Fold each of these.
Amino acid sequence: MRIKLFMGAALAPLAFATAVIAQDAEQDGPVTAVEDVIVTGQPALRNRTDDVVPTLSYDLDYFQRFEPLTVGDALKRVPSVTFLSDVLESDGARLRGLDPGYTKILIDGEEVPGAGVDRSFFVDRIPAELIERVEVVRSSSANRSGDAVAGTINIVLRDAVSLDGGYVRLGAIAFPDSEYGQFGGTYGAVWGGEALGGRLLLGANVQDRRNPKDKYSQRFDEPGGTLDNTEVQTDVRDGTDYAFNVAYETEIGGGVFDIAGVFVRTDRYQDEDSIEYRGGVENAANLLTINDNDLDIRTDNLSIRSSYERDMLGGETEFKLAYASISDEQYEFESESEYLRDAVIFPDEDRFTLDSTRVDIQDEEWKAAIEHEIDLSNGVELEFGLQGNWKTRDSLITETPRIRFNVPNAPAPRPAVPAFGAFAPVPGGDVTIEETRLDPYVMLSGENGALTWEAGLRYETTDTTITDRTAAPADRVNESEEAELLPSASFRWALSEDDRIIFSAARTVRRPNFNFLSPAVLEEEFGDSDFVGNPDLKPEVAIGFDLGFERRLGRRGVAGINVFYRDVQDLIEETNTGAVGSGGAGTFVYTVDNVGDGKVYGVEFDLSTPLDFIGMDATGVFLNYSWLDSEITDFLSERRFNSQSDYVFNTGFTQDLPTWGAAFGATYRKQGDAFSRVLAEEVTTSYGADLEVFVEKQFGSNVVVRLTGSNLLDSSKDETFDKFANVADQTARDYDEYELETESAGPVYQLVMRVAF
């Protein structure tokens, strides 16, 4: 709170002062024109890149006018990106609808670790205000990490040469439909210019995050059966993001040196309160339980990269060194009071349960590379290099002994709650994973008339050591070595000045989830059955292609269509060891293994253009639609890859009013249903549509005020859960429980002012 007050107090007078100075300077012209640092006065469009590998590039002007809070919010407008998050949340990006672990997230071209066990990075951890552009790389190249089966999302931050001048951002966020009725703030400042013998950029951003939601669940004994109980729940996520970034570039020793860093802290408190009623009769006489579940989260992300590039050895050599880390600390507290275990109704409880858990994840990566490019004859270029990555991940999940006691003679008073015992690691909860990767590569590229091409070969080696201090001594340390040869090739063929075909083919990998590698036994992880990890898992590998056609529309517009296909081999799926589980006869111990193959395919269309061809230069429209599908055979039958939405659709427009110095626009998004099947549970998820609008007004030459509204259709998330005691019951469709859950939230409004200086 002190940091927020300090930033607000510091930036408010700065915004006022710079506005006054700019007004005084209007006669001589502003120091920095507003369009140089703030998006205004131009339709929102996609870039038409010259990359050989199929790449969609979206500059800040495509996102900023809708004032997304996070990179995740911005990515909702990008083709083929889906989310399986709560309403108003956009955390794990699912490119082409696949699990986030199939998508590689980069910041400024460098890998970043995430807190999730699937190696994914939550894109809502990065404030949107930091980004310069977002690149969606649909295929792979030899000079990038090959663990990108679905593709790569590269988040490019502002660098030291991106600004001459800067701006201050001040704003307020309102949640009018929330019964908690709270306002939030957003403050930021960015400056770039010449300093310290080179170019320097400095930025800071503080913004409040609040997500109040309501949930309602109905639980039946089976589909169409008897209603057993209902649950009414509120879920409020309240937090603040702090972000600081710096970039510096200078010429030294005949070459160019640059260094950049970004630090983001997420402080979040999640408060879930629920009340459960018998038979759906929601009164005191049928009150079953009252539950209070609180989660305190603090996540720090740090990323630092540096490079030095100069001409040498007959070509151009670049040395790279980077460091990235994530620190994720969580404390969860859950209490539950039970009623109706006897004939005495509320307010006299019958049993009280208390749980407490801590999570501490520290993940660090060091990266180094040396890369060299040489121009060969006839326009052919040779690039080769060696990239190294050293990861250490320490995961400590501890809990206290559960506190549970009965109140046997209600309405006798409940005894005092005893103190928590000592925290101790849960099975598989005290693990260190060390990975060393050394990846040499070589790549040729060139241009021959209308044809531009590249072809390369990458050899990825991974040495892994897993130390699980909760496992039996004989299984405590496990070591493995893997090596994959990853060829790739792409070409771009210009049919005319406006039309071109882009093709790419590549072999990619997906490494196993961290929790799949631990040999600790987790009791009742799948219904009544247990689970044990498999340290000998191999990565999944995929061979795939992308084939697209792209056409320029007028001077600035672009339309494209792309088809993609992935043949995924060595799929990691649950299997039965045959051993009897801790629950006795009828239960088993399950594990994961490399079994079977799968296919992923789809069609992607996108359009982004001003309507200048009909004389409406100030009007921009955008539309993208992705049809997504896949095939996999699991322990029951054929299905899609888990939780892959069958489509995602975005459309919108921006309208500038140059005479008035104003603009407005809207965007509409709809994501298709997603189905998931694991042992003992099946889930179908549906989302309502999302509508966002903005209006803006420019004052003078350096001030823009923008009002935005999001979730204007009160979008909901609806889930259907089919739950079973074990796989035999799942096969026979003998239900343990059938649940319908809906989650909803109201609109969010922002009023933001930017002052250029």
Amino acid sequence: MAYKTDIEIAQECVMKPITEVAEAAGISPDEIEQYGRYKAKVSTDIMNRTDKKNGHLVLVTAITPTPAGEGKTTTTIGLSDGLRRIGKNVTVALREPSLGPVFGVKGGAAGGGYAQVVPMEDINLHFTGDFHAIGAANNLLAAMIDNHIQQGNALGIDPRRITWKRCVDMNDRQLRFIVDGLGGKANGMPREDGFDITVATEIMAVFCLCSSISDLKARLSRMIVAYTYGGEPVTAGDLHAVGAMTALLRDAVKPNLVQTLEGTPAFVHGGPFANIAHGCNSVIATKTALKLGDYTVTEAGFGADLGAEKFLDIKCRAAGLTPDAVVVVATVRALKMHGGLAKTELANEDIGALERGIPNLLRHVSNIKNVYHLPCVVAVNRFPTDTDAEIEFIIKKCAELGVNAVLSTVWERGGAGGEDLAREVVRLCEEESGNFTYSYELDASIEEKIETVVKRIYGGDGVSIMPAAKKQIDELTRLGFGGLPVCIAKTQYSFSDDPTKLGAPEHFTVTVKNVKVSAGAGFIVVLTGDILTMPGLPKSPAAERIDVDDTGRITGLF
């Protein structure tokens, strides 16, 4: 059977004017700014309404990702449409795609099949310009640092200890390590430098965690960009850069409103990676969605050990949010890969491989239930090659943990394929109450917090902290940052920091190589393994297959 591509399905959709979507969601005409017919920004005042209490918050996360695919964003959108089909007032809150992956490995990132947000091409490309604004603000600050040094260096910045990098929203390995300031005195001071991808920057994290313009300014002001010759931190506030940066970000902080293929209101706003950042959409968008829907469905990036852990331990803590239910997405195919099968062997029934791989799912589910104490359901994203015996095996194993597993066919059927999952989510929200707890307490030391996540969430034996990282931890503690949560950057392909360790590995240690503070975002960044903050393009990037015809119609985006 020949399936239509995601972009073909999206381009066939007859979208509602965004004004109709806004009106149906309870947004007044003076609270909306249109970006064409099908996109808009909405007022940040909506999240402060007092005439309605917040709706139920549902988090969608997943097993450890594999090349077989899991469909977390697709499930998030399909679940939202499914809830709407059973009569619920629903909003969905998602991250914006980064251009790097769009042109790199995976193509577009706005859902898939008949569970997508539209206009798909706009969302995957320039959208409303938020990422450009974030990149401009980031690079303005970088320019002001070097200009300050050039103009006399009144703050005594040590050029060897500038921690702020420039950024670009593209996978470009050539920019990871550079030397700039060449060409003589008039062109700056030569120094080693490098670029991050925009979604890995602290400004992206600040953007997604702030609650207002004033909070944005306060967070920007606290960002540490360098250290003096005496070892004291220099902030963006010290450089008087905050006002100009905020001016660049003024419109970007307003949430973006679009729609699903079935017309459900969707807020797509902010987009940090979950392997190298905190992996959640903006607090402002989530709180706006909660004021407008009786149910708000959101997602967190990669597996539950990354996105969900950071959503719960960082975003919920910062924003005062508590999920009412968690959905863990799994596929038979991915679990068989965790059981050792090659991607070419996944079409054949193999209960043995499934049995070897399912501990990955069960560890994620156990973490949600037994560490965070939240109601949970497993969504089995069904593929045509999955057999009834394989599905029954997953359902039985989840039942042993006291968790229901529900089939999801939203990729093929849209909201109709998510109705059963929607009913189970409603049951969890209305009949089961969690006792939400974080995985660690803030008064623990930085080392203790890292070790707690490794042991309680990853299932490891502990951590190995390299001497340079230990020195960094000691300095950050001396500077008063020991009470912040930790944002651990590690591979998304394993519970460990080794991407080859599939399933639910045991008896491993995680190596901590670098520790730095994101004082504006309000967390400690912990770099493990071989993690990079600037990805590279693959051998055959998606960009090679993207094109535009004479009518302006885009093809190959996914």
